[in-house]
């Protein structure tokens, strides 16, 4: 016969299953998922769902014994009794149930199970274990590890702690005994210990003092009210979604086990030896869902090594769970965001608001027993979100073809205060539930019973932010974003630039509607009938998609007088909510000249955001590089010649791909450029030179036939209206007098050229990227992985691998400026020089490099690049920042947090500490200025501080939130001592160099730059006191 084990995936249940199996007894495990570990047969069963009660007996008709673990609810008999009655009716003859030493028959919650079995008059055994010995490695685990304490309300009382294995053995004996015991048994361990004695035993084993914190009954009740049922559910729900979609996945858990039939592997954030396990178990892992370690405030030392390992193992996409209030670098969960940014990989950060499930977990006992919810939120409102919705967002982010936006706010559909929630609960439960408003200190104290102090303080403080509207604002921002980030209409969507633009938008996950005369477009694009010559079609796009807010405008083919046709549509589009237009015109026109000038006038006169792309393409102007394979292909193919009236004029031919990319950038930029932008290719060619290149490629001679303007007008008149033919031939003839060559040479500030950022995923690089993007500049980021955060385009580049040097220019031939962050080597010139040489060959005209205040041209390590730029005679700027203000939150952060000290060899010297954002602003100015600086600039902050003054921070004392004030000291080290400290993360020669440079502070080496002349320095705005105020959580402990 068969034994049915409820709670079969728990500690005692699985131990019992193993014992029965080893003895040759058939076993069936009942679990909510219908799955069980270790190949045990299982069936779906849920105490709270009576429809599952028959499942075990349908799966196995030989069940005659039943192991009972009651559900984790206070009034469990309501759920248990119906199942016991049904089990008896199905032939079960013996029951073994687990209650507790303190549960007598009829007592709530577990004694009612005992009484029920007595009333049924069946064979039974009641196992009444004392407190589990495993509690020290589960319930007390974090308090022992982080706080060196055990908490209880037991005072000096002693307990014969018992193990789950011993309980399972007792159950096995009760089941396999020839005759049922029909009685209850107290299950105890072999020794008596008070919690004081247990703490002493732990102290002797761990080598540090563990204490027993004596709580009152009220305090302990509040603690249990927080952690009962507190396990997260997003991972298990996500696993189900992936399983249903047939997406392979692997679950990582500390036990190496997983519910259902899922494959699992042992993984523990706090044990780096387990980090390799997932990749050994499955080397095909390419995506990871990240939930940071529980109850660990400073998670960075645990998270960073694993993420770096994952990238090295080929992981290409990460989806991480943080919170609405977590910014990159913030502890505890924001550090995940920061590390992913620095790694330059594809990622999505899921930022949910407060879980709706908290009412069934964190607040369960206080609602159940005290009819109340206690929070610090006052009247603040929250768009509560469910674990199911979070899991669905994670599923979408993991399985979408393209990585979703970097930050993904996850909000529920309604705003509720905790007062509102209490009223709803009162209505449902039929009794009054109140919202008790408590202080931050009260909340911190309550949370500190089961969380490390800094984590408890963090949670209490962010909960209190709700009172100030911290969570409600996200609902309003999301509504604004939903209104602004909508659909883009692409007119001419089946044409050369339109079709490419549609693909770029689709790949970026931006909704697109294509407008064409045929109302047809290739999959997967949505299309609508639209004809410039038929005003009745103007409303079609907005009927098809009412969320259109941006339009790419390509004027009607071959039409000279475009205003009567275009103006009514553009005005109608504005009336339907369109807020931005990007229009494609030709490069040569006066403001109201011809179709291009008229198009511009129509768009600009609307008074909305706009960009005018002034490019060369058929049929509006000519020529575009794509014209050689389209407009001119027939004469080239059939007559081996190309006819133009442009004589020897040179053209910076541009590809449709580049025009589409420029349109994409203008449409998706956070801020509209609101100006004309010339779009040119990277090289100048006459038509003679272009035909010579074609001849070499095709293996036959292709000639440029020079014709008169009249001849060209006649040719064009055969394929387009006469007025447009005259206009187009005239534009082509202007090539002869250098019309396009002047655009190439004289209008760099209006061309869509690209700025390359090396080190673009670092702090300065990302800050600079944000400034450039917000200003509408085209940019390309390099990283070793070839990845960068959205919305930036990236390319693989490694200073130590010269084969990657050409990749940026292959990706974007329009690069004309480069931001240089040198590699982490002592002598950087051998790595940087070959790249600079190649960049100049590829058309780069300006370099902006970053060195240091103490690095003069020619100095090692960074000054040699400075000298090389001087020797080349190219346009350049060298930014020479002082010591970073962010060092207090990175290099010096652990010593401030853990040891209350700053260490340096700077003695009493003063430093004008500068922030990376200010350095980025200086770089932005140097890269975008019309004229190159061609000099070096000292980049400093607005104030002078010694390290003594910084440790005291007399303007704003180092203040650690709810922890209070504490003294931070400046520990003075010798140059040798500091060099030894730097050697932990730098090469010996670099460490020695850095220690010597730091010691120059003591001689006024940094202070002097504060008094440099205004033309030699850039003074930032970030103050040290402001930085400390904004980031004080970094130093909490």
UniProtKB/TrEMBL annotation:
<dbReference type="InterPro" id="IPR001509">
    <property type="entry name" value="Epimerase_deHydtase"/>
</dbReference>
<dbReference type="InterPro" id="IPR036291">
    <property type="entry name" value="NAD(P)-bd_dom_sf"/>
</dbReference>
<dbReference type="InterPro" id="IPR051604">
    <property type="entry name" value="Ergot_Alk_Oxidoreductase"/>
</dbReference>
<feature type="domain" description="NAD-dependent epimerase/dehydratase">
    <location>
        <begin position="4"/>
        <end position="70"/>
    </location>
</feature>
<dbReference type="Pfam" id="PF01370">
    <property type="entry name" value="Epimerase"/>
</dbReference>
<protein>
    <recommendedName>
        <fullName>NAD-dependent epimerase/dehydratase domain-containing protein</fullName>
    </recommendedName>
</protein>
<feature type="domain" description="NAD-dependent epimerase/dehydratase">
    <location>
        <begin position="488"/>
        <end position="554"/>
    </location>
</feature>
């Amino acid at each position: 016969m068969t034994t049915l084990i409820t709670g079969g995936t728990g500690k005692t249940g699985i131990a019992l299953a193993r014992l029965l199996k080893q003895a040759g007894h058939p076993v069936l495990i009942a679990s909510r998922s219908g799955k069980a570990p270790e190949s045990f047969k299982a069936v779906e069963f849920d105490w709270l769902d009576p429809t599952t009660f028959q499942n075990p007996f349908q799966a196995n008709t030989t069940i005659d014994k039943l192991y009972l673990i009651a559900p984790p609810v206070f009034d469990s008999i309501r759920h248990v009794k119906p199942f016991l009655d049904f089990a008896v009716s199905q032939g079960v003859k013996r029951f073994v149930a687990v209650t507790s030493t303190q549960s007598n028959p009829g007592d709530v919650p577990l004694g009612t199970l005992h009484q029920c079995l007595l009333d049924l008059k069946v064979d039974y055994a009641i196992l009444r274990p004392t407190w589990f010995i495993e509690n020290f490695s589960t319930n007390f685990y974090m308090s022992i590890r982080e706080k060196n304490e055990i908490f209880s309300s037991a005072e000096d009382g002693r307990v014969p702690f018992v193990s789950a294995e011993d309980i399972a053995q007792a159950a096995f004996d009760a089941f396999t005994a020839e005759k049922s015991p029909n009685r209850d048994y107290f299950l105890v361990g072999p020794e008596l210990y008070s919690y004081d004695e247990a703490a002493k035993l732990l102290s002797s084993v761990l080598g540090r003092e563990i204490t027993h914190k004596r709580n009152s009954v009220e305090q302990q009740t509040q603690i249990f009210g927080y952690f009962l049922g507190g396990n997260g559910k997003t991972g298990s729900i996500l696993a189900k979604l992936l399983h249903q979609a047939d997406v392979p996945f692997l679950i990582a858990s500390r036990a190496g086990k997983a519910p259902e039939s899922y494959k699992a592997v042992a993984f523990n954030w706090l044990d780096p030896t387990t980090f390799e396990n997932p990749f050994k178990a499955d080397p095909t892992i390419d995506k990871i869902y990240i939930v940071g370690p529980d109850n660990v405030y400073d998670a960075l030392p645990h998270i960073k090594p694993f993420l770096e390992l994952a990238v090295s193992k080929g992981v290409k996409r990460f989806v991480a769970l943080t919170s609405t209030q977590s910014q990159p670098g913030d502890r505890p969960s924001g550090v995940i965001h920061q590390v992913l940014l620095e790694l330059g990989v594809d990622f999505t950060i899921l930022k949910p608001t407060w879980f709706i499930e908290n009412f069934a977990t964190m607040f369960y006992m206080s609602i159940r027993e005290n009819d109340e919810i206690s929070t610090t939120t006052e009247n603040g409102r929250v768009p509560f979100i469910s674990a199911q919705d979070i899991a669905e967002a994670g599923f979408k982010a993991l399985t979408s073809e393209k990585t979703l936006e970097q930050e993904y706010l996850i909000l529920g559909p309604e705003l509720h205060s905790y007062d509102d929630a209490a009223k709803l609960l009162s209505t449902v439960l039929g009794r009054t539930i109140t919202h008790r408003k408590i202080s931050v200190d009260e909340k911190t104290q309550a949370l500190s019973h089961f969380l490390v102090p800094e984590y408890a303080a963090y949670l209490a403080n962010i909960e209190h932010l709700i009172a100030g509207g911290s969570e409600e604002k996200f609902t309003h921002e999301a509504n604004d974003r939903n209104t602004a980030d909508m659909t883009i209409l692409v007119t001419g969507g089946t044409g050369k630039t339109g079709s490419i633009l549609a693909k770029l938008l689709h790949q970026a996950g931006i909704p697109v509607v294509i407008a064409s005369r045929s109302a047809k477009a290739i999959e997967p694009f949505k299309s609508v009938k639209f004809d410039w010559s038929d005003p009745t079609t103007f409303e079609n796009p907005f009927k098809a998609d009412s969320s259109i807010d941006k339009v790419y405008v390509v004027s009607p083919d071959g039409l000279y007088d475009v205003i009567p046709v275009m103006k009514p549509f553009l005005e109608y589009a504005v009336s339907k909510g369109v807020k931005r237009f990007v229009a494609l015109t030709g490069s040569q026109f006066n403001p109201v000249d011809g179709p291009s000038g008229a198009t511009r006038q129509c768009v600009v006169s609307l008074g909305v955001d706009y960009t005018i792309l002034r490019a060369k393409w058929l049929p509006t102007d000519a020529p575009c590089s794509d014209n050689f394979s389209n407009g001119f292909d027939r004469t080239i193919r059939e007559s081996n010649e190309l006819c133009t009236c442009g004589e020897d004029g040179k053209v910076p031919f541009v590809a449709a791909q580049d025009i589409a990319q420029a349109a994409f950038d203008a449409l998706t930029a956070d801020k509209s450029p609101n100006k004309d932008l010339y779009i040119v290719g990277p090289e100048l060619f006459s038509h003679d030179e272009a035909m010579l290149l074609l001849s070499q490629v095709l293996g036959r001679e292709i000639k440029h036939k020079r014709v008169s303007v009249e001849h060209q007008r006649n040719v064009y008149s055969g394929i387009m209206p006469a007025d447009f033919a005259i206009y187009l031939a005239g534009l082509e003839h202007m090539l002869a007098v250098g019309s396009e060559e002047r655009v190439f040479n004289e209008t760099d500030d209006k061309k869509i050229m690209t700025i390359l950022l090396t080190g673009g995923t670092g702090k300065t690089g990302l800050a600079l990227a944000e400034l450039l993007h917000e200003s509408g500049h085209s940019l390309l980021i390099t990283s070793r992985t070839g990845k960068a955060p959205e919305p930036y385009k990236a390319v693989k580049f490694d200073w130590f691998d010269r084969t990657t040097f050409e990749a940026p220019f292959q990706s974007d031939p329009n690069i004309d400026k480069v931001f240089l962050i040198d590699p982490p080597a002592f002598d950087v010139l051998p790595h940087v020089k070959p790249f600079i040489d190649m960049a100049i060959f590829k058309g780069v005209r300006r370099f902006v490099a970053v060195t240091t205040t103490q690095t003069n041209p020619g100095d090692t390590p960074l000054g040699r690049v400075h000298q090389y730029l001087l020797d080349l005679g190219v346009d350049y700027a060298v930014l020479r920042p002082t010591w970073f203000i962010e060092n207090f939150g990175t290099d010096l952060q652990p010593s401030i947090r853990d040891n209350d000290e700053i260490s340096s060899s700077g003695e009493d010297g003063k430093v004008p500490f500068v922030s990376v954002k200010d350095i980025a602003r200086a770089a932005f100015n140097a890269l975008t200025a019309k004229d190159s600086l061609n000099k070096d600039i000292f980049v400093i902050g607005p104030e002078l501080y010694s390290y003594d003054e910084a440790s005291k921070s007399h303007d704003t004392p180092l203040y650690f939130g709810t922890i209070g004030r504490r003294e931070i000291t400046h520990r003075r080290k010798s140059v040798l001592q500091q060099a030894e400290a730097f050697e932990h993360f730098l090469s010996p020669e670099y460490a020695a160099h850095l220690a010597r440079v730091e010691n120059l502070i003591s001689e006024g080496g940094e202070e002097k730059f504060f008094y440099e002349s205004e033309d030699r320095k850039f003074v930032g705005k970030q103050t040290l006191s402001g930085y400390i105020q904004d980031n004080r959580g970094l130093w909490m402990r």
